[in-house]
Write a structure and sequence with these properties.
This protein is mostly helical. The protein is 71% helix and 2% strand. The protein contains 20 helices and 2 strands. It has a two-stranded antiparallel ribbon with strand order 1-2. GO terms for molecular function: acyltransferase activity. One of its GO terms (biological process) is alginic acid biosynthetic process.
């Protein structure tokens, strides 16, 4: 006889936002809820409208568990841009269409500026006039940078007549709120996603296996490599760089380079994998960026959905390369300056963006001088040194991206340059051998040939369903052990 006991306190926690434990893909509560979600999703396989409503409702619940009551901002952006696109399409003259796209820009960028940049801009203005600015207590909603950019891409595409506006608000709400990519990307284009919404639900054997592989690899990168080396090494170095030698600071920078890649790409892999299990295709978002032999190649491989968004909607809008070389270099620097500011309201992000913008402009200038064609790749020893230089330039920029202020960044650079002390390296390895083992594993996997990853993916695809289940359960168990936490259900069964 089966009996069960319900813990109503934990059941209530499932429906209440906890600012100390926002929901993410690698959290225990999501793993339980997603299992229940899949069962209902499959039951609604042939009921399209009910399935769209269910997924949209779950997406809003997911966002509520991530940001609390600020889910109304998601609804505001959705409703506003849906009707703006309809009005834009109905406009018969160019100035009307332009007016409506400006309204969309004002709404989306206005929300982004208020929640993300009010205090930063207040500090800047106060420093210019010699006054003081008291910060407002403004909560930054999770993912606001992603869903505003995603919704903006829709209205801009309608303005450019690249797509026709939707006539069903539910379809647009489904597109904007689709939970796999809602809080951390990738930024999904309307032209790629909207045609998939009303297709019959179909998940092939290959899609299912690839989805499991991406979820497993993403979970491994995010919850094991990134989280572990961050908590146990990287944070300690970056919090107090002057307490550590130069070699320790340098290892901390290398660790952060791996951590941020595994964090961002791991979450993207899980998002793409979950979407595949639900019958939807997202484009690849990271493509082994540290294999890049130039900064231009790096931005073709790093956060591809963001870099392509900045290129298509900002760089090209500024004139791109159509108005001469000097204007092209300026457009690159402006684009990356704003791209840095998009990441966060801090001068450190601005400097990070400017470094990348100047590097992109310098690389374009070098390509012009040497007569090399766009997309032409180097080989052999030239490529080796190109990868080495590009990787270390990116790592140098990460110092400013990670630290909260300039002084800490400069302290870290000073420690690396003046108090290196390489004799401490063996002691460092002995004291943090688990961290360095994971770092070595992470970099080895990153620099492996692409065909190895493809072979692993095909192996997972060929596994029987039981094998895939065992793989996921083993990985979840490993994540629990690494984090020293337990996934506690709210229903306890007794046999």
């Amino acid at each position: 006889m089966i009996m069960w006991d319900i813990d109503f306190d934990r059941l209530r926690d499932v429906f209440v936002y906890d600012p100390q434990a926002p929901m993410i893909f690698s959290s225990g509560i999501f793993l339980w809820l997603f299992a229940a979600f899949i069962l209902i999703y499959l039951l609604l396989q042939r009921r399209l409208t009910a399935r769209l409503l269910f997924v949209t409702a779950f997406s809003y619940y997911f966002y509520y568990k991530s940001s609390g009551t600020y889910f109304f901002l998601l609804a505001l952006v959705t409703v506003a841009d849906f009707f703006i696109a309809r009005l834009m399409a109905a406009g018969t003259v160019r100035w009307q269409r332009k007016m409506w796209v400006v309204v969309s820009l004002f709404i989306n960028l206005g929300l982004l500026c208020y929640f993300k940049y009010t205090n930063f801009l207040g500090d800047v203005f106060a420093s210019l006039v010699g006054g003081t600015f008291h910060h407002y207590d403004i909560f930054l909603p999770v993912g606001i940078s992603f869903f505003t950019f995603q919704s903006l891409s829709y209205t801009i595409d309608v303005y450019r007549k690249d797509i026709t506006p939707l006539t069903n608000l539910l379809d647009y709400a489904f597109y904007v709120s689709f939970f796999p990519q809602l809080v951390a990307g990738p930024i999904v284009r309307a032209r790629d996603f909207i045609p998939q919404i009303r297709r019959p639900l179909f998940v092939s054997h290959e899609m299912f296996g690839r989805g499991i592989f991406l979820i497993a690899s993403g979970l491994f990168k995010k919850a094991i490599i990134s989280d572990y080396i961050s908590v146990n090494f990287v944070e300690r170095i970056f919090d107090n760089p002057t307490l550590y030698s130069g070699v320790e600071n340098l290892m901390g920078v290398y660790g952060y380079a791996l951590q941020i890649y595994c964090d961002f790409s791991g979450y993207s892999d899980m998002a793409i994998g979950i979407a595949l299990l639900l019958g939807f295709h997202f484009n690849k978002n990271f493509d082994s960026p540290y294999k890049s032999a130039s900064i231009t190649e790096f931005w073709r491989r790093w956060h591809i959905s963001l870099s392509s968004w900045l290129k298509d909607y900002l760089y090209i809008s500024l004139g791109g390369n159509r108005k001469g070389k000097i204007r092209q270099y300026a457009n690159l620097i402006i684009t990356m300056f704003l791209g840095g500011l998009w990441h966060g309201a801090s001068w450190n992000f601005v400097v990070w963006g400017l470094f990348h913008g100047v590097a992109l402009a310098a690389h374009k200038f070098w390509m012009t001088l040497t007569g090399r064609k766009k997309g032409e790749e180097s080989h052999g020893i030239r490529r080796f040194f190109g990868i080495l230089i590009t990787f270390h330039f990116v790592c140098f920029c990460w110092i400013f991206f990670r630290n909260a202020d300039f002084s800490t960044s400069l302290d870290m650079i000073k420690q690396i340059c003046t108090t290196f002390r390489p004799q401490l390296f063996p002691q460092l390895i002995a004291g943090y051998w688990e961290v360095f083992a994971l770092m070595a594993l992470g970099f080895i996997l990153h620099f492996c040939p692409d065909r190895w990853e493809s072979a692993c993916c095909k192996t997972v695809i060929r596994l029987p369903l039981a094998g895939k289940a065992v793989l996921m359960l083993a990985l979840i168990y490993l994540v629990i052990q690494m984090k020293s936490t337990e996934i506690q259900p709210f229903i306890y069964f007794q046999f």
